[in-house]
Write a structure and sequence with these properties.
about 5% strand; single chain; 4 helices; 3 strands
């Protein structure tokens, strides 16, 4: 997952999001229909445009389903029952992965 969440960019196309997660756009559309926390805007053509908040929620869904092996129903339940707690844990995991990447880069440059 490598999507640039620059403050200048307010919306991401479904293609950009799918590429960042390494999945097909159809999976992103499917998750959009399955998870209530995703609320992408639609442009005049009906194309989904994801906000940075949507991308963050997609990262959480991706983490639960693809990395932790939750079923869709399990992920939905997990999000509904403890969304704040889940988001806090996910933020910690994301920060730790960033720190690990920085440390690995430093180690490789020595």
């Amino acid at each position: 997952m490598n999507i640039e969440l620059s403050p200048d960019k307010r919306y991401f196309s479904i293609g950009e999001v799918a590429k960042a997660f390494g999945v097909n756009a159809s999976l992103i559309r499917f998750w959009d229909s399955e998870f209530d926390i995703l609320k992408p805007k639609k442009n005049g053509k009906g194309n989904r445009m994801f906000t940075p908040e949507d991308v963050k929620n997609l990262q959480l869904i991706f983490h639960l389903v693809k990395e932790r092996g939750f079923t869709l129903e399990g992920a939905k339940t997990h999000l509904k029952e403890g969304q704040k707690k889940t988001l806090d844990k996910f933020d910690i995991i994301t920060k730790l992965k960033g720190i690990k990447l920085e440390l690995t880069t430093i180690k490789n440059n020595l």
